[in-house]
Amino acid sequence: MTIKPDLSTPIPSSLGAVHFVGIGGSGMSGIARLLIGEGHRVTGSDVRDSANIAALRELGAEIAIGHAAENLADDVDTVVVTGALWQDNPEYQLALSRGLPVLHRSHALAALIAGRRLVSVAGAHGKTTSTGMIVTALRALGADPSFVNGGVLADLGVSSAAGAGELFVVEADESDGSFLLYDTAVALITNVDPDHLDHYGSRDAFEQAFVDFADRAGELVVISSDDAGAVRVAERLANERVITFGEAPEATVRLHSVVTDGPVAFSVSYEGVDYRARLRVPGRHNAVNAAGAFAVLVGLGFDPAASLAGIEGFSGTGRRFELHGTVDGVSVYDDYAHHPTEVAAALSAARTVVGEGRIIAVHQPHTYSRTQAFAKEFAEVLEEYADETVVLDVYGAREDPVPGVTGALVSERFADAAHVAFLADWQEAADHTARIARPGDYVITLGCGDVYRIVPQLLGALEREHG
Q: Which residue from 193, 317, 321, 361 has the fewest beta carbons nearer than 10 Å?
C-alpha cells in the first residue's frame, strides 16, 4: 500500500533540515528548490538520477540514488514523502521509528505558502499548462509570483521559483485529496473529468472534493462552463464569487473564433469587449487553458489586454508535446497525457501541426486500475487520432499488479488490429516504430510514468533504420 496524506497532520513551526524521499519529481524537486532558497539543509533520495536531481545538487542538496535506511542522516529534522512511495520504504519506516515529523509533500508546500495570497490550479487535465500560463503572464505583468508547478516551464528551465510579490501560484493535486490542505484565495478548476476513482471510490465523491476545494477559496472561484463535471460542481457551490470560462454563451469569459491551424489562435469576450490572441503552443485545449488563465488574471484585477498579452508569451512546459529530436524527418515528441481525454487533446493538437505526416503514438498505460477502467476509451481515442499505435505494458506506479491487466487490454480493443501493436519489450517497440515511420511523421510517447525514457531508444532505432 502506498502512503496516503493525512490532512490533519500538524506542520512543524520550523522544518529544519529536510530529507525528501522521492526527490526527483517535478513537484518534490520544486519544493526542495524553494526550501534550499530559504536556507534549509536539504537531503534526499530517488530511484534514479535525473536532470532535476543534478540541478538540486548544484544548489547544495545531498541526494542518494536508491532508497536505503542509511540515506536518512542522524541530524534530519523533518522528512517529506510523496504519495507514490510504498509504506515499506526503508527511509519512511526509519523516520517513523525515530518519531520524526513525516510530511506529505502537500504539507511541505503548505508550509512554504503560509501567509501568501494563493492561486491554486486544480482539475483532471490542464493543470500544469494553466499554471504555467498564469505564472508567465504574472511575471510579464510585473507581479513576480512564487510558484510550484508540476512541470518545468520551458522559458525558465525550472518548475518552481521564489518571487518577491504577494502571489503564490501552485498546481494543486486532486489525486489524493491533498489540494484541500491549502489556504486558497483564488481557485481555478480546469475541468472535473472523472479520474482517481481508486482513491475516491465514486464520481460523486470525486466531484464533492472539488466542491469542498472551491468553497474554501477566500476570494474567487474560476471554473469551466463547458466541462460536464465542472458544471455539476458549480451548481453545488456555496461560494458566491464565481467566474466561468469556456465556449458556453453564458460564460463570464467566453472563448470563440478558435483557429487550430498551427499554433492556436482565438478570441475571448469579457465584459462586452473582444480580445484576440495567438499562442506559441498548438491545440484547441490550450485555447481553453488560456481562457481559464485569463479569467484568473482579470479576476485578480489585472488589465485584460495586458493579461492576454502575457499569456501569449507562454512557450510550454516539459513533457507537454516536448520535441526531443528529429531523424530523417521523423520527429520524436513526448507528452504526459495519461487519460483518454488528455490523449485525445495531445494527438489532436499534433494533427494541427504535422502537415502531411502521420502520427505514431507510443502509449504507456498508467496504473492497473485506470487501464482496466478505460481500456476501451483509450483504444477509441488512439485509433481515432493516431495513424499507428504502439502500446507498451502498464506502468503500475503505486498499485500492485492485477492479473490479466496488461497493455494488451488496450490493443485488443482496436477495431482495426492492423494499426496497433502491443510490445512489452521496449527495444522491440522502438525497432517496430522505426520500421513503420516515414519522413514527416511525428512519433509521440504518451503517459505519466517513465515512458519518456524510451525516447533515446526510439531515436537510436530511427538512426539505424533511416540513418
A: 193
252 is catalytic: no
How far is Cα 395 from Cα 350, in angstroms, rounded to an integer?
24
* Known binding-site positions for ATP: 123-129
CA angle in degrees (0–180, nearest 5) for 181-184-187 = 115
Q: CB atoms < 10 A from the CB of 376, how many?
A: 12
- Name the active-site residue from 78, 91, 136, 171: 171
Collapse the DSSP code of 445 into the 3-class scheme (helix H, G, I; strand E, B; otherwise coil) and give the result. Answer: strand
> Which set of grid coordinates corresponds to residue 238?
456555496
Q: Is 341 a catalytic residue?
A: no
- Quick: pLDDT tens for 350-386: 999 999 999 999 999 999 999 999 999 999 999 999 9
pTM above 0.90, yes or no: no
- Catalytic, out of 128, 131, 190, 244: 128
pLDDT digit string (tens) for 76-111?
999 999 877 888 999 999 999 999 999 999 999 999
Q: 175 versus 255: which is more confidently predicted? A: 255
What is the pLDDT, as a whole number, of residue 200? Answer: 61
Q: What is the pLDDT of residue 454?
A: 98
Which residue of the set 43, 82, 91, 127 is catalytic?
Answer: 127
Q: How many CB atoms lie within 10 A of CB 377?
A: 16
**Residue 171 is a catalytic residue:** yes
Phi/psi region, residue 271 (left: phi>0; alpha: psi -120 to 50; beta: rest), is: left
